[in-house]
Amino acid sequence: QVQLVESGGGLVQAGGSLRLSCAASGRSLFSINAMGWYRQAPGKQRDLVAAITRGDSTNYADSVKGRFTISRDIAKNTVYLQMNSLKPEDTAVYYCNAYVAAGEMNFWGKGTLVTVSS
Known about the structure:
By secondary structure, the chain is an all-beta fold. It is built from no helices and 11 strands. The protein is globular.
């Protein structure tokens, strides 16, 4: 089992920045194949924003490339999402995800709300 707790959401003006954190417990990041940030806006599906693998490979949704950066701190067992140049369309609940290939298990946090005002 992996428990995930997100933090760092809030209200920010367009053009501003936020950093989201996802603290993992129950497993070391070394044993988690991939960590990701997803987001879900009202009335829309949950979509991948950014992901980082155990080997430190990263990938991003086209809409956030050049603005968002995913990173991880092994010592703190925490994954971050640095969000710059925020736009109103980035408004959503952001969820942290952990994928463990053994057993194809997915774990989710409860989410943190990001609101970007214009």
